[in-house]
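Hi R.,

Here's the chain you asked about this morning:
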Amino acid sequence: MKWYSIRQLADEFGLTLRAIRFYEERGLLSPSRICQESGAPRVFNEDDRSSLGEIVNLTKMGFTISEISKGRITDQQYKAQLTYCTDKIDELEKAVLLIEERLNKR
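And the predicted structure, written out as C-alpha cells:
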C-alpha cells in the first residue's frame, strides 16, 4: 500500500496543510498516524487521496463542506448547482460586455 504525507497531498491538489487538517477535523478524511503519540505525523493512503480529490472537485463545483460531509450529493443537488453556475456564467458574460463597451467608448 502506498502512503502519502500531508505535504505530498497538499502539493498534488494545490491545497494548504490547514485545508487538509480542516477536512480531517470535519470527518471527511481519516489519516493514520505513524505511531499513537500525540503530534505524530499523519499518513494518508490511496482511499484518503481519492477522497481528497473528490472533496476538491465538489468544492470547485460550489458545494459546501456541510453538503459534502453529509456523504452523498443527490442528482437534484447537482442540477441545482448546474443551474446556479449557468446563471452565474450569464451574469459574468453580461458584465464582460458592459466592461468592453466602457473600454470601447474611450
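The chain has five helices and two strands.

Let me know if you need anything else.
M.
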